Amino acid sequence: MQQKGHMIKNVIKFIHGASNEDVDLIVQAIKYRRNQLHTQKAQSFRIGDTVSFTGRYGRIETGTIEKVKIKYVLVKTDRGQKWNVPGNHLTKQKETA
User: How do beta strands 72-77 and 50-54 pair?
Assistant: First the structure.
């Protein structure tokens, strides 16, 4: 874990001295990686799963998955609203038996 922290410090140090072109490449790489993470996480959910996420104004929303798209998930909340949420923003809730 200490090695990871050292690596992140080096990346941040590099960014501080980066040219405009370097910053553009870094931003592209971050957007690409974020897109991958949203897709991977969205595909890990199934219709009927109970999930939670942070909605507007910091409110925690809980609901059921109605549809899994490529990187977004359609969630129907307990209050009847439908939200289109990026997969990486969802947390699966424990099943209660």
Answer: unpaired
Domains in the chain and their CATH numbers? Answer: 1-97 (2.30.30.140)
Count the Cβ atoms, other than its own, within 10 Å of residue 65.
Answer: 20
| The two structure tokens encoding residue 75 | 């969630």
AA letter at 51: V
* Digit-coded pLDDT (tens) for 41-59: 999 999 999 999 999 899 9
Give 51-90 pLDDT, tens digit per residue: 999 998 999 999 999 999 999 999 999 999 999 999 999 9
Contact between 76 and 63 (Cβ < 8 Å):
yes
